[in-house]
Amino acid sequence: MPLYLVTGGCGFIGSHLSAALRARGDGVRVLDDLSTGSLANLAPGAELVRGDVADHAAVRDAIAGVDGIFHLAAIASVERGVQDWPGTHRANLSGTIAMLDAARLRKLPFVYASSAAVYGDQAVLPITEDAPKRPLSAYGADKLGCEQHALVGGLVHGIPSMGFRFFNVFGPRQDPRSPYSGVISIFCDRFSRGEGVDIFGDGGQTRDFVHVSDVVAALLAGMAQASVEAPVLNVCTGRATSVRELAETIAAACGVPAEIRQRPPRAGEIRHSLGDATRLRALLGPGAPRGLRAGLEEVVAWL
Ligand code: NAD
Ligand code: UD2
Description:
The chain has helices at about 10-25, 55-60, 80-85, 85-105, 140-155, 185-190, 210-225, 245-255, 280-285, 290-300, and strands spanning about 5, 25-30, 45-50, 70, 110-115, 160-165, 170, 195-200, 205, 210, 230-235, 240, 260-265. By secondary structure, the protein is of the alpha/beta class.
């Protein structure tokens, strides 16, 4: 059976990916520093190497005997990139280069998480993969750097790779207690406890919310399609929801009035983020990606 390294496997998306790999009988080794992830998320049967993806020695040990790398470890917050620019850069870009450098030795297929943050604000929606890249945050700039280094990795070192620009991912196991967590898990948590929510700005900003099961399906398909051309695909639904509409929908699902406090807008914030899912649909086939409402009930039930 193949053995895969999943960096960030104790986090939200990495834990779902690890569980899917184990479910089909693959071996999983997780490299994670547990900075935002937790041991409780480690998939049954997966091995944990506790370490930092920017530490070349830890990375070299972690890749021994693996057949491919899923690189998901990052400080996955736009807001934290504003507060700790060099620290997030080390994890998000230097960490990716350390992983690519390790993959280079055996030309290991390398599937990694980029982000819709590479696009910034766009005049034309939905956003196709070929749209100009205009990151508005350190986080987005580092993710774009990851894509460029993956391309160089293919050109110069023959590393086959595939990158995915995740839009706003949601689903069970996204920690609602962290202030940097995704808006859906925060709103579901607060409303299900009968508390109100904070909306940053006027709530008219929109996001394309994609369920974690579609993200996992894309990552798994990507491992078979990694190539030295270093393709990069959107992972999105092509449907936009405003943050205010989201709050009202979740409050209704929880059977509580939508108590909303308006707060100042966040720095580095994108106004409208909506992806074109044409290439994702071609990769995943009919049925994908799934809608927001069924997924919301699942998050509320998980809490
Ligand atoms: P998460 O915070 O739940 O998981 C990240 C994991 O990486 C955690 O387990 C954390 O402990 C680990 N980690 C962080 N820094 C590390 C380091 N230096 N060395 C080793 N491990 C480290 O976040 P997530 O939502 O699961 O995000 C996974 C990936 O997807 C990230 O690359 C993120 O940037 C990207 N992404 C996420 C979203 C989203 O909506 N959640 C959107 C776009 C891109
Ligand atoms: C998400 C990803 C990020 C990056 C980006 C790509 C998360 C946690 N982050 O950032 O990794 O890839 O997408 O564009 O998924 N909001 C509120 N109240 C709250 C929390 C959030 O109003 O309590 C708003 C927030 O201001 C933003 C929207 O909800 O307009 C989504 O916020 P988020 O933190 O879930 O995700 P985002 O889009 O900043």
